[in-house]
Sequence to fold (1047 residues):
Amino acid sequence: MGTRLGELVERLGGQLAGDPNIEVSGIAPLADAGVSHISFLSNSKLRAQAAQSGAAALILSAADDETVSATYTGARIVTKNPYAYFARAAQYFASLDAFVPVPGIDPSACVAAGARVAASAHVGPQVTIEAGAEVGEGAVIGAGCFIGRGAVIGAGTELFANVTFHARCRIGARGIIHSGAVIGTDGFGFANEGGVYIKIPQTGRVIIGDDVDIGANTTVDRGALADTIIEDGVKLDNQIQIGHNCHIGAHTAMAGCVGVAGSARIGKYCTFGGAAMVLGHLTIADHVHISSGSMVSRSIHEAGQYTGFYPLAKNAEWEKSAAIVRNLATMRDKIRALEKTIKTLTEQK
Amino acid sequence: MGTRLGELVERLGGQLAGDPNIEVSGIAPLADAGVSHISFLSNSKLRAQAAQSGAAALILSAADDETVSATYTGARIVTKNPYAYFARAAQYFASLDAFVPVPGIDPSACVAAGARVAASAHVGPQVTIEAGAEVGEGAVIGAGCFIGRGAVIGAGTELFANVTFHARCRIGARGIIHSGAVIGTDGFGFANEGGVYIKIPQTGRVIIGDDVDIGANTTVDRGALADTIIEDGVKLDNQIQIGHNCHIGAHTAMAGCVGVAGSARIGKYCTFGGAAMVLGHLTIADHVHISSGSMVSRSIHEAGQYTGFYPLAKNAEWEKSAAIVRNLATMRDKIRALEKTIKTLTEQK
Amino acid sequence: MGTRLGELVERLGGQLAGDPNIEVSGIAPLADAGVSHISFLSNSKLRAQAAQSGAAALILSAADDETVSATYTGARIVTKNPYAYFARAAQYFASLDAFVPVPGIDPSACVAAGARVAASAHVGPQVTIEAGAEVGEGAVIGAGCFIGRGAVIGAGTELFANVTFHARCRIGARGIIHSGAVIGTDGFGFANEGGVYIKIPQTGRVIIGDDVDIGANTTVDRGALADTIIEDGVKLDNQIQIGHNCHIGAHTAMAGCVGVAGSARIGKYCTFGGAAMVLGHLTIADHVHISSGSMVSRSIHEAGQYTGFYPLAKNAEWEKSAAIVRNLATMRDKIRALEKTIKTLTEQK
Fold:
């Protein structure tokens, strides 16, 4: 019932060293893999562990293969990027017993006359789709989702249960939006008159490219006048907040709990650690990496890794260091005074 | 199909300098505005740009009008607060092609016998309204919303799709609650007995005033015994957490991802930058402004701007500064030792 | 219509000093309690206030009883842990007028053939339950919830309205999941190939023990290959994010807005203040307490309280201290130079 290694290599590439008729039924980590598993070595530090692995086959790089093959007796698939190969192999095995929703519209769904749902799309129970919305070929709309007037869901895109996708927003092909995400909610825009806030209507949209993943309970504001843009291949984890009129460059990834204030312009191929925050109206260059828990309070024009969080300590030690942090100006003044006194002392000699 | 400037001024006030028969069809930023647009100048630094604007008309202050009118040849609407005027004008133009939900209850909604829904209210598809709940005149309940037993939604208030509004909570008139928000969830209250938590029932409510906006996926806890209070005109952005028994004063605004722990008492006219955090049982005076990413760990009795986040740096520099922060006490001791030595040296002279 | 003190003590234990026939109708704080209330003293600092309380009865410890009984003339219930006793008494009074959902499945719910719902369970309106899912005895599934294929909801567990509980995940008995929570969403796992992310299928589950509470809009990722584990008695507040393959030990509690990155292993009896963050792949020992707003960036092997957030200051002062924090290395170098100069000066003598 497994998959022949020969077939796997035919599908996914790589050079097979070993019997193509060996059958594997799934992927497992090095430590857990048994005779029906394929495993992978993506970190050379684990070569010794890989060499001892009970896996039927190993995915690894040419550089590691030389060492590992000296003692490891199973089959090997040699490839440039073993971790990417693992991801594709895992996708393949997951697809074998994946649940595939049947095309069609559940009878409990409310689909407005004037909405267009492709024949190959699936619309689950308790869904609402408003007039003028479009759901592309092979798209999957999970139970309880809401799709507003004129919104467009691209081909092959999946909305998990209970996603809210507001009017006129668009997502391209092969995207995933996880449960509880809200796309196209109003941006936070107000004028203040004598202390009282007057709402500025948010009439822009959210425009999302192809191959974009959006995590559970993440929120993306629609633009005020212009649109909020998320380019191809962006990956957003859970509970992220993207403000109105942001522009996020292609293939940028953000871990959970990140917040980006309005009108920030973020480059391509950036990464943001969990709970990193970005103030509004900033520009961040391509290939910038922000560490977890860091507050980006100014634009960044140079690629690189940036960090800014208070180091953790035992509470008693923190209390000491925090008290000094408050009074660093005093400390600086004392040093200046010392420098002056010493200068005098030295000159007197 | 546009609106005559004369009509706009009749509706919204301001002094028109120019032809009242000029027609405008919408609002645009200074840089993008063309002959069918009205634009606005709310920041005197942009006077030069305004003077060059292609807009048919400009909203601006008397102070800016003198300079701008020297070169700008379009019509001008002179008003005290151009940004507030812009907001109202934008509301007007948005209303012209806004979708207006039809009064009535969608057949797929489950409205309990004993719930009272005003005839002019709209209840969307897949909604649940429990017994004893009230929905006021002109209120709009979006698809998939839940309104618990005895809850009250005020006149003209709109709940976007997939809002959860729990039993016995109340919101006043003209409010907006965005998708995924949860109002009246249990506060986090437990007694601890030998390491095991025993739940304290949360029997209070959430009471929300008029003209309050609550953002997408924001959560507001119900009170433990007494109520959680949000006064008139408060504006909460997305993904904010308000703990049980908090009291938020009128016209206070919080940006995305702010967290407020239980029983905090926050004044009127305050602002909180994104991801600011407030510990429990604190009191914050009126007109306090907390910067983004700052942790409020003590009560604040004086109006003003408060800040506390670690400054961002290149990672290598941060590693250096963070290592020193951990050891600030050592640095302080060294300075003390130097001061002592120098005192001795000086006295020896 | 109240409850006799004698009956209360029979149910909940404790030693009654006073008339067992006194009737009380509910619990109130010391300051508000009147003749129909029972109140409690859980903090010895409030002894004086307790002694003046107008409550019909007081719950207190033997240590406090001696002092308080000298002047307080109402009845007293003496018990080891008055706060835990208060919690149980509050539960008792809340149960008297609690709304109890009727067993059965609302006609608007979509329950797949092949799902098993216990006869004593309640399934609310607009719910979706997929094939193979199980809902235990006395469980309550609120309006609009989604329960995926093969998921298991334990006996007596309650899902408030609009919870998403994904396929194959499990929660034990007597749990509570609040509105908007998403259990079993995909973890954030990708391989990177030439800048482009390739999704790693998330085929693990979320396994939740007994007596676990999960807050509103909290998200818990399913494991990548293995499972995400939340042990018995864990209490998670609102808007918490738990990454894939985390393991959270029994009776650990986390306040709102906490984030835990993937594969973190957290001990038993820990507490996390609001907005605390934990990086991935860390180990945290039992009985560790993390202060609010602190970033845990390394494993913690020793019980205790840990803290790390930038102290709040008036903005002008923060600007000064933050500028110095950036340049702490310069300050350290100056001190070293001073030390050297002084050493020379001293030696010259």
Summary: Chain B has six helices and 40 strands.
